[in-house]
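Quick review question:
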C-alpha cells in the first residue's frame, strides 16, 4: 500500500529475523533506514541487526549515526554498550550504558512511567554484568538490586541479582548463608522470563536478550575448571528454543581432594528445565533435578590439623521437582504459582561423633561430659511446598502479596556403638542392653503469608514496607544423636522497612530493617518471597556459620543495613556500607543420661546410659560489619580498586538447663566467643579490545580472637593472585590461566567470621568456557 513507509519495512525485517532469515531481515531494515535516513530509531535497529551476526564495523557505524541524529535517545547507547561488551571494551560499555540509563526518561513523551521503569530495569540489569567484568561485584550487586526495585516483574533484574548472590556462596556448601536468596532469585527469573529468552540455567544466564530480535535456536554452553591440587569441575548445558517451547538439560560434576586429609568432595547434578508459552499471557515452567554428593569433613577449622579424620557423608536428592505457572493479567500485573516436591537423603558415619552425657544419679543432674562415640546416621526428608504470589505494578507503587504452605516428614535412623569411653547403653523400653539404635519419624509444617509495598514518593525517594507471618512446626531434634520425636512450634510476625534516597542523580542512600524466620533444610531454597529489602538481603538460609554451630531449624534473623554510594563522572565509584546481622536459635541437643545407681542386670554390673530428651541450648549471634569500596575506570582498558571490610562476630552459647557449679569435664555449658576480622582487597584489571585480559590481586587478612583461652590467637597474612586470559570474538569462548596464592602463604582463620576457603599453597587454575 505504501512502499515508502519505513515502519512497514522495519516490521517486516524484524519478522524475517524472527523466522531465521537474518540476511533478508537486515535488507528490510536497511531499506527502512534509507527511506527515512533521519530517524535515529531505524538506525539503532539496523545497528543491532548487524551486531547480532557479528558485523561489528557496520553495527558501530549505524549506532554512531543514530546517536548523532538523536543524542537524547537512549536506544543507540544501549545497543552500543552491548556491542562494546562483546568486543571486550568493558569501560566503554559501562559509559555507554550509564548514558543510556541517564537518558531513559527522555522517552516519557511516548512511554508510560511503568514502561520507563521496565526500560530502566533492563539497563540496570545489563549494567550489573558489566560492572562484574570490571571487577566491581559490590557495585554490580547494588545495580542488580536497583533493577529489581525499578521493575519487580522484570525477569532479567532477578537474573542478574541471582548471579550477584551466587558469587557470595560457599563452593563447598558448608556455610549456606546466601543459598536461599540465590535460589529464590533464580526461580523468580525462570517463572517471569518469556520463552524466547532461553532457559535460564546459571551456566548461560548472562546471555543478552532483546525481544525484538528473538529467534529459534539450539545451543551448547560449558565451563571446565582445573586446579593444580587435582580439583576439577565441569558444568555443561544443551538448550533449545522452538517458538513457544524451550528446554535446557544441564550436567554438573565437581571433584576436589581438599587441602588437608579427609576434605575431599565429589558432586554430581543433573537438571532439566522446561518452559512453555500456552497463551500470550500464560506460561508454565518445569524443573527436575537429581543431586548427589559425598566426601569427608568439609567444615572450616582454625587449625586444619584438628579436623575430624573419620567423618564421611553422603547426600542424595532423587529427585527434587518443581512446577511453576505465570499469568500476566496486564502490563505489570502478574500471578505466580510454584509447587515443589523436595526429597533429600543425608547419611554419615563418624567414629568420633561428639555426644553429650548428663550424669544424673537418682535423677539429679550433678555433672555433664562430652564424649566421642562411633555413630552411623541417616535422615530422609520429603517435603511438599506450594506458594502463590501476586504482583501489582503501578507507575509509583509496587505491591507484592503471597502465601506459602509446606508439609513433610523426616525419617531418622541412628546407631551408636558402645566403646570404652562411656558406659554401656540401655533401652528405656525394657528390651535390654543395646548399642544406641533409633528409628524415628517426625513431621514438618510451615505456613507463611506476606505483603510488601514500594512507594516512589518522588523521583528521589522510595519507601518500602512489608510484613510476614510465619508459623513452623518441626522435629525438636533430628540432627544431634540421640534424636527425639518431640515437636516444636515457632511463629513470628516479621516487619520489614526500607528507604532509598537519591538527593542528586549519582548519590544514593539506602536503609533497611527486616526480621525473618528460617526453615529446616532444602525447604528454604524453593520460595518466591522477596529476598531483599532496599538492596539488603533478608532471606537467609543461616546466619550463624555452620562450621561453628552446625545446621539449625527455626532460626530467627534480624537485619539492619545502611549504605551510602557515590558515583562521579570521572568513572569513580565509592561506597560505604554498614550491616548488623543478629540470629537466635533455641535447640535441643541429643543427650544420654548416665545414672551410676541403676544396675538392671546383676550379672553385668556396668552402669548404663539412657537416651533422654536432651539438653536445651540457646545460641545468640551478632555480627556488625563495615564495607568501604573504591573503584576507578581508567581510559579504555583499565580498572583499579580497593575494598576494606571489618566484621566482628560474637556468639553466646548457653545450655540453659545446666546449672552452674556442676562437675564438668569435656563440656562447656556457657561461653562467649568473639572474632574480629579485617580484610583488604587491592586489584587492577586490564581488558584489551583484541580479547586479552589480565588481573592482579592482593589480599590481606588480619584476625584476632577473644574467649579461646589462647588456643586460637588469630592470624595476619597476605596472599597474591594473578591471571591472564583471552575472550574469543562475541564471547563464544574464554580461556583463563591463574596463579593463586603466588607466595604460598598458609593461614589460620577462625570460622566464626564467615569466609570462603582460600588456597593454602601456590595453585595453578585453568578455566575454559564455550557458549554457542
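Suggested answer, residue by residue:
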Amino acid at each position: 500500500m505504501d512502499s515508502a513507509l519505513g515502519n512497514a519495512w522495519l516490521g517486516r525485517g524484524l519478522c524475517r529475523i524472527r523466522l531465521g532469515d537474518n540476511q533478508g531481515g537486515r535488507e528490510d531494515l536497511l531499506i527502512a533506514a534509507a527511506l527515512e535516513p533521519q530517524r535515529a530509531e531505524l538506525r539503532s535497529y539496523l545497528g543491532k541487526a548487524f551486531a547480532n551476526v557479528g558485523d561489528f564495523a557496520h553495527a558501530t557505524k549505524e549506532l554512531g549515526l543514530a546517536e548523532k541524529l538523536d543524542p537524547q535517545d537512549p536506544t543507540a547507547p544501549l545497543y552500543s554498550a552491548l556491542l562494546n561488551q562483546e568486543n571486550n571494551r568493558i569501560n566503554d560499555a559501562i559509559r555507554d550504558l550509564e548514558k543510556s540509563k541517564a537518558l531513559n526518561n527522555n522517552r516519557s513523551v511516548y512511554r508510560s512511567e511503568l514502561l520507563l521503569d521496565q526500560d530502566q530495569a533492563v539497563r540496570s540489569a545489563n549494567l550489573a554484568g558489566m560492572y562484574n567484568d570490571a571487577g566491581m561485584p559490590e557495585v554490580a550487586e547494588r545495580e542488580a538490586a536497583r533493577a529489581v526495585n525499578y521493575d519487580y516483574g522484570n525477569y532479567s533484574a532477578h537474573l542478574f541479582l541471582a548471579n550477584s548472590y551466587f558469587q557470595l556462596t560457599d563452593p563447598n556448601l558448608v556455610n549456606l548463608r546466601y543459598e536461599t536468596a540465590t535460589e529464590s532469585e533464580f526461580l523468580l527469573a525462570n517463572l517471569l522470563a518469556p520463552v524466547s529468552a532461553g532457559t535460564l540455567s546459571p551456566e548461560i544466564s548472562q546471555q543478552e536478550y532483546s525481544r525484538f530480535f528473538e529467534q529459534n535456536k539450539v545451543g551448547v554452553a560449558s565451563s571446565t575448571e582445573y586446579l593444580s591440587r587435582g580439583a576439577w569441575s565441569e558444568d555443561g548445558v544443551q538448550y533449545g528454543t522452538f517458538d513457544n517451547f524451550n528446554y535446557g538439560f544441564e550436567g554438573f560434576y565437581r571433584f576436589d581432594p581438599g587441602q588437608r586429609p579427609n576434605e575431599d568432595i565429589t558432586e554430581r547434578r543433573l537438571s532439566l528445565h522446561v518452559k512453555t508459552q500456552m497463551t500470550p499471557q500464560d506460561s508454565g515452567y518445569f524443573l527436575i533435578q537429581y543431586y548427589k554428593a559425598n566426601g569427608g569433613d568439609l567444615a572450616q577449622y582454625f587449625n586444619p590439623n584438628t579436623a575430624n579424620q573419620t567423618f564421611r557423608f553422603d547426600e542424595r536428592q532423587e529427585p527434587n521437582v518443581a512446577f511453576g505457572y505465570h499469568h500476566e493479567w496486564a502490563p505489570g500485573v502478574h500471578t505466580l504459582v510454584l509447587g515443589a516436591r523436595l526429597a533429600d537423603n543425608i547419611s554419615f558415619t563418624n567414629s568420633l561423633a561428639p555426644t553429650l552425657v548428663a550424669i544424673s544419679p537418682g535423677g539429679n543432674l550433678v555433672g555433664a561430659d562430652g564424649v566421642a562415640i562411633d555413630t552411623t546416621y541417616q535422615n530422609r526428608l520429603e517435603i511438599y511446598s506450594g506458594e502463590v504470589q501476586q504482583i501489582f505494578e503501578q507507575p509509583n507503587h509496587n505491591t507484592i502479596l503471597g502465601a506459602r504452605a509446606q508439609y513433610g516428614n523426616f525419617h531418622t535412623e541412628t546407631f551408636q556403638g558402645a566403646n570404652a569411653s562411656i558406659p554401656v547403653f540401655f533401652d528405656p523400653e525394657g528390651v535390654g542392653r543395646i548399642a544406641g539404635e533409633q528409628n524415628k519419624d517426625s513431621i514438618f509444617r510451615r505456613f507463611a503469608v506476606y505483603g510488601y509495598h514500594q512507594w516512589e514518593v518522588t523521583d528521589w525517594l522510595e519507601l518500602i514496607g512489608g510484613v510476614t507471618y510465619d508459623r513452623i512446626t518441626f522435629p525438636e531434634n533430628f540432627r544431634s544423636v540421640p534424636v527425639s520425636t518431640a515437636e516444636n512450634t515457632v511463629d513470628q510476625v516479621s516487619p520489614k522497612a526500607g528507604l532509598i534516597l537519591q538527593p542528586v542523580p549519582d548519590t544514593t542512600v539506602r536503609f533497611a530493617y527486616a526480621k525473618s524466620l528460617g526453615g529446616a533444610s532444602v525447604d528454604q531454597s524453593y520460595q518466591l518471597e522477596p529476598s531483599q529489602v532496599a538492596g539488603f538481603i533478608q532471606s537467609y538460609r543461616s546466619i550463624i556459620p555452620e562450621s561453628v554451630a552446625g545446621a539449625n531449624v527455626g532460626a530467627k534473623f534480624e537485619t539492619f543495613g545502611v549504605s551510602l554510594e557515590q558515583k562521579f563522572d570521572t568513572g569513580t565509584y565509592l561506597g560505604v556500607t554498614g550491616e548488623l546481622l543478629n540470629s537466635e536459635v533455641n535447640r535441643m541437643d541429643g543427650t544420654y543420661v548416665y545414672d551410676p545407681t541403676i544396675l538392671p542386670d546383676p550379672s553385668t554390673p556396668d552402669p548404663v546410659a539412657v537416651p533422654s530428651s536432651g539438653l536445651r541450648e540457646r545460641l545468640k549471634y551478632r555480627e556488625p560489619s563495615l564495607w568501604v569500596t573504591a573503584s576507578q575506570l581508567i581510559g579504555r582498558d583499565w580498572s583499579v580498586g580497593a575494598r576494606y571490610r571489618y566484621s566482628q562476630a560474637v556468639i553466646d552459647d548457653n545450655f540453659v538447663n545446666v546449672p552452674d557449679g556442676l562437675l564438668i569435664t569435656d563440656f562447656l555449658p556457657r561461653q562467649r566467643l568473639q572474632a574480629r576480622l579485617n580484610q583488604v582487597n587491592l586489584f587492577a584489571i586490564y581488558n584489551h579490545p583484541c580479547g586479552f585480559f589480565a588481573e592482579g590481586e592482593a589480599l590481606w587478612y588480619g584476625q584476632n580472637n577473644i574467649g579461646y583461652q589462647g588456643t586460637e590467637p588469630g592470624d595476619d597474612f597476605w596472599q597474591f593472585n594473578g591471571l591472564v586470559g583471552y575472550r574469543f570474538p562475541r564471547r563464544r569462548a574464554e580461556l583463563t590461566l591463574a596463579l593463586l596464592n603466588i607466595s604460598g602463604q598458609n593461614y589460620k582463620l577462625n570460622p566464626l567470621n564467615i569466609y570462603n576457603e582460600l588456597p593454602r599453597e601456590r595453585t595453578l587454575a585453568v578455566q575454559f568456557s564455550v557458549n554457542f
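Why it works: Residues 384 and 489 are 18 Å apart (CA to CA). The radius of gyration is 28 Å.
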